[in-house]
UniProtKB/TrEMBL annotation:
SUPFAM superfamilies: alpha/beta knot (SSF75217). GO terms for molecular function: RNA binding; RNA methyltransferase activity. Keywords: Methyltransferase, Transferase. This is rRNA methyltransferase. Residues 66-202 form the tRNA/rRNA methyltransferase SpoU type domain. PANTHER family: RRNA METHYLTRANSFERASE 3, RRNA METHYLTRANSFERASE 3, MITOCHONDRIAL. GO terms for biological process: methylation; RNA processing. The keyword S-adenosyl-L-methionine does not apply.
Amino acid sequence: MPPATIGPGEFFPVIGVGPHEKPWPTGDQFDPELLENGDRRNVLDHYRYWKVESIVADLDTKRHKLHIAIENWQHDLNIGSIVRTANAFNVTAVHIVGKRDWNKRGAMVTDRYLSVIHHPTIADFQKWCQENNVPIIGIDNVPGSKQLESAQLPETCVLLFGQEGSGMSEEGIAVCPVIYEINQYGSTRSMNASAAGAIAMYHWALQHLPR
């Protein structure tokens, strides 16, 4: 088996497997090309050698009721990282609000394994949430924000995040019945947007996913 290589944006070797020994496993989920050449993707061992569409179909049977939304007005590198974390929590969908094109580098192709829904404006996003009975919860440290640490989040909801630096837009803030902030104890005014996304998703998971 060839030595593992360093993946883009990573500081550790990509864990993969080489060509599968014959006889090959049978089943429509398996990709003959991966069985032949090896599977170097960043996927769970359970999904080794599976076709992408088969992985998605399996994940669809156990999606969680959490949605993630990200405002996309600038070329924010953090969007991809938030999408990658959303994949790790197997959310129902990720919503991109604003520009359709977003920086996918940090996603490390994890966007292929979940639903990504685009909304041109905050108003379009709000309309979708109302029609699908998904309450919007903002995550940002703006005036009037409540503490996330003491919040009980609904099982079905969408967490809305703003841009790195500028935070949530005024339009985004206006459609949120409630906004939560993450307590900080140092000197910085704000933490990295992708880090805040991971903390918020984990807070939801502690309340609604089996341990």
